[in-house]
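FIELD: query
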Amino acid sequence: MTIEELWKRIEECEGQVFRQIRGGEFTYKVKGNVIELNRTNRVVCKSTFEEALKHVPLVNTVPLQRLQAPSYLYAILMDTRIRSNNW
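FIELD: result
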């Protein structure tokens, strides 16, 4: 999957509920090349997702620990709405 394909899916799922590994639920809004998370004041850039994409499929958040918001990245990237059987 390319970053453009991934980003399109992220845009399509804007406002939907996602679940972190430990059960925390969140939504996000897409604003250009970033997403704004509703449970934190953080934003996650498209380039961060591009970097995270190099590590999928993921078993846990460990490979993402050096990136911004690893538990949110994991929740989005490993959700079936986003990965759609790509990994």
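FIELD: remark
The longest strand covers residues 28-31.
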